[in-house]
Design goal:
By secondary structure, this protein is α+β, with helices and mostly antiparallel strands. It folds into 2 domains: about 35 residues; about 150 residues, Jelly Rolls (Sandwich). It has 2 helices and 9 strands, in the order αββαβββββββ. A hairpin with a 7-residue loop joins β6 and β7. The longest helix is centred in the N-terminal third of the chain and has 35 residues. It is elongated and about 100 Å long.
């Protein structure tokens, strides 16, 4: 009888120990996942829209394209988007500004679409502070999704807000034809984690 009581105690301690170990492992996994999951505490707005369409109407020089301000030209001649990014977190974060081409038919080749990205004071971002501006096809491919092109990555401190101006146009090397070709793209901002 004493031997049976000892065996029952051993089994009881074994079951309780097993339950405690399972609980601790589950708690550790949940805690680890909580700290590794990204938090998206930022706000982005696009003015007038994140969708841009450029038509094969009027090729322009880089000098004129850099001066575009979103006013005074027919829709489709230029692309102009003001991107406002606000870090609402309590720590510093990086944000990538991306573009993705939308399908159009007939389409203007990406080698004729120029980009220029500045801050709110029209000071060019480092990738655009040069004499030769990038074409869509020459932009860096985004490392997390090959369909996107990365214009730049910026850092914002906790509570910081930044306005960027994205200007795009049809290069003056484009030969105008009677076709109604278009180039459409969408601007997007993603938090890097």
């Amino acid at each position: 009888m004493a031997q049976r009581k000892e065996k029952n105690k051993f089994n009881l301690f074994f079951v309780i120990g097993f339950i405690v170990i399972c609980f601790l492992i589950s708690w550790f996994i949940l805690l680890k996942n909580k700290h590794n999951s990204p938090t998206f505490l930022y706000n982005v707005s696009y003015e007038p829209s994140s969708n841009v369409e450029i038509e094969s109407i009027l090729p322009v020089s880089d000098k004129l394209g850099k001066e575009f301000d979103g006013t005074g030209t027919k829709s489709g001649v230029q692309g102009y988007v003001e991107i406002t990014i606000e870090n609402q977190d309590t720590k510093k974060h990086d944000y990538s500004i991306l573009v993705i081409k939308s399908e159009t038919n007939p389409a203007i080749d990406g080698n004729y679409i120029k980009f220029y990205l500045t801050d709110s004071e029209d000071i060019p971002m480092k990738e655009f502070d040069r004499d030769i501006l990038p074409y869509y096809d020459k932009l860096e491919v985004y490392k997390k999704n090959q369909d996107y092109k990365c214009l730049t990555t910026i850092s914002l401190n906790a509570g910081e807000k930044k306005v960027l101006k994205l200007k795009s146009w049809l290069s003056d090397s484009y030969v105008v034809s009677l076709n109604k070709d278009k180039f459409k793209f969408v601007v997007s901002v993603v938090e890097e984690y």
